[in-house]
Specification:
- Helix content is 39%, strand content 19%.
- A hairpin with a 4-residue loop joins strand 3 and strand 4.
- Helix 1 packs across helix 2 and helix 5 packs across helix 6.
- The protein is built from six helices and seven strands; from the N terminus they run H-E-H-E-H-H-E-E-E-E-H-H-E.
Length: 201
């Protein structure tokens, strides 16, 4: 993986950004390794790169409850997709922007929790739906200077997703139910309905 990250970093550095800063998409299904790869890439690129997770645009649980979507949390309709698209457009053009960050411990998004400033020349954006071929997500595609998609076999995703819920304290039965009822359908949607990335890993 270290060789992959180093190669990606070299390719990113060679990109002349289309606008204010380079926008690099790291996309793939849940548990495919997006967060790890994105964090490693930021570390490799150094202090002028920043990690921008999509998770800050989760709709609040109260809204999901009101809409009957709590059990589907993580599906495309459970995000403020239009707000996320708008934020990415601002990242491309503005010197400084405040972005929300998701606090997994409290299961909430915190507005304005991170600042991307004028010294940042590269934003590594990580999320499930960055290449999804559906509105409004498809408005993101022209903004990426480089896109990376992580391909992981469904059987491996299943194992990782169940492990993730076990690590969150769920019983073996509940962990498998959560993974198969929500996470895996989202994974299949992403795999079958994402546009082709510049790089596939």
């Amino acid at each position: 993986m270290s060789n992959t990250v180093a190669q990606l970093a070299r390719r990113v550095r060679a990109i002349k950004p289309a606008q204010r800063r380079r926008l690099i998409a790291i996309a793939g299904p849940p548990a495919s390794g997006k967060s790890t790869l994105a964090a490693d890439l930021v570390a490799q690129l150094g202090p002028t790169a920043v990690l921008v997770p999509m998770d800050g645009f989760h709709l609040d649980n109260r809204i999901l409850d009101a809409r009957g979507l709590r059990a589907r949390k993580g599906a495309p309709e459970t995000f403020d997709a239009a707000g996320f698209v708008h934020m990415i457009g601002r990242l491309a053009t503005e010197d400084e922007i405040a972005i929300p960050v998701f606090d997994r411990t409290r299961d909430i998004a915190i507005a304005g929790a991170q600042i991307v400033g004028p010294d940042t020349d590269t934003a590594i954006v990580e999320g499930n739906y960055l290449l999804l071929n559906a509105s409004p997500w498809d408005m993101l595609h022209p903004l990426w200077d480089l896109s990376v998609f992580l391909n992981v076999p469904e059987s491996e995703l299943t194992t990782r997703l169940i492990r993730r819920w076990l690590d969150h304290g769920l019983s073996a039965r509940d962990a498998e139910t959560r993974a198969r009822a929500n996470d895996l359908p989202n994974a299949v949607l992403i795999i079958e309905n994402s546009v082709t990335a510049d790089i596939s890993l």
